[in-house]
Amino acid sequence: MSNLPPPPPPSQVPGSTPSAPQKNGRPPRKSPFSAKRNNTDPTAPKSGKQQLPKWAVWLIAIGALALVFGPRFLPSKNSEKLTYTEFLSQVRLGKVDKVSINNTSNVLSGTLSDGRKFTTTGAPLLSDADEKLLKDNSVDYNYNTPQANWFTSLIPILLPFFLIIGIFMFMQRRAMGQAGNIMSIGRSRAKTYNADKPSTTFADVAGYEGVKMEIKEVVDFLRMPEQFKEIGARIPKGILLVGPPGTGKTLFARAVAGEAGVGFLSVTGSDFMEMFVGVGASRVRDLFQQARKMGRAIIFIDEIDSIGRKRGAGLGGGHDEREQTLNQMLAEMDGFETSEGIVIMAATNRPDVLDPALLRPGRFDRSIIVPLPEYEERLAILKVHSRDKRMAPEVSLETMARATPGMSGADLANLVNESALFAVRRGGKQVEHVDFENARDRVVLGASRESLVLNADEKKATAYHEGGHAVLASVLPHSDPLHKVTILPRGMALGVTWTLPEERHTYSKEYFEDIICKAMGGRVAEMIVFGNINSGAANDLEQATGIARRMVREWGMSEAVGPMAWNSQQQVFLGEDLMTSGREYSDDTAKLVDGEIARILRTQETRAREVLTKHRRGLDLVAQRLLEEETIDGPAVLRLVQQGLSESASPSSSTTTEVAQSEIGREPG
To answer: Which of 12, 299, 343, 478 is least enclosed, having the fewest CB within 10 Å?
Structure first.
């Protein structure tokens, strides 16, 4: 129920930060070695025939139909349309010279005495009276049946043949397309960018000056290889970028290509794997062939651990598809010289699973750590991602940078975006500080569960539980500073006590003991106040037990066990033998380790009970304030604890009050 992240071991690899691209004001470089812009596969055969586009075929069909049926619907330009009554009137007046009667459409057309043409529609057959009228007025009339269009008469006969031919052509094209896909399955799926496309440069990457300096040698070699040849220096063939997820490893690779002005081939490790045997090796060969055709180029393989894991895992034999793909990659990396101008860059967040042959000199010669951002780098990243946001003047990015330790560049980008979303939901016109606070709570703690309603007893128990965490976080000397405490349900927790870890790279034994003691605070507070415990401390106990186990087994912080370390059991897929991967110590040592873990947990539980008993009045005040306001910040908790000490001391003695207040933050370790 509390925010107690287990500290990373000293050997943990920190990570880095991506940043949004920005214009640097200079035109993109063009290299004489860059390939021509072509979005298609350069190795695909070119056909000499040009097929008509689909719209042309439809246009021809519509034109043919218009020629056949159009004349029937187009009226004559020089004819006057009369009603049948008007036609008879003109006949009686002797103004009609001749009439032609169409037996098919019952249309009467003819010529008047003044030369005008007319049309009208009559009955299928003229009545005897009408026919006598025409004869009496000397009107020349006749019946005619027009012949049908020969093309129209052929349509019912030819239409079935056209449909059958079309179906056969469609099936043939489908078969040819599938055959083409099968023939091209061994081609590389790398995305190709020429020298003009990767416009990302080092100016687009916020911070990370140390990482930029290490990669700058590759850029200088791709720009001016003659300087290296004169001295006899050899640039590394491969560069491995190592760092946690979201730290901008792909962004660095694209920045190198943009700075050097060369082609860039981007592919992920999973693109080499297919259901057919040998496809991965074939795609590796095709990838390097594409790079050689481009002249100087950078091949970037993201998530290389998916194909570069240790061989001989002990399961499945030694001839699986992944191993064959890795073998082909090792052979290709040995098959070219650095003088060709091809540099391989790869990214991974699991360097421990890579095959040793992949990391030896001559292949991936250099490993560059892309760590999690420090304060200055977090501030630069927040500024980059806040450029296109409408920020309120009171928003302090410096405060947010200090309050987000351990966040990667991707986390910071998400934080800025979530703050903008909160501003929209609030109906504001700009992003304010409260939006950043809500966004940070949403990202770190989870979404607020407003639909969850606690009864009075559960709410009171949660208030004392979180109050126990908050009081210990305020008074323990080595604890991280308390940021806020709330009893509003968030994520999977009914309440949260949030501390802000300070920037540090090594951790003392006293720091871990304070974390365990603070984790025990919620459980102990409930035992002191209510005399019983509930299931709300499950997560606290899990975190405390994990830290105590690592103190004993990995960090040598137990006097009984001594300076000995046992890591967790290796997994089979890392290349360890299934039969030999087991416990590295005897049963007696296991009993000693379990005893030390239990001793540490019970010692810190007793310590938490003593501290909370001493600050019982402060615990009551914090719990009461939580029941009233539901959320209070760290300084308010500290004031309530000081008030509790003052009320517990003699009210008539100011000296006693000052001594009691000075004891805050100096509890025994």
So the answer is: 12
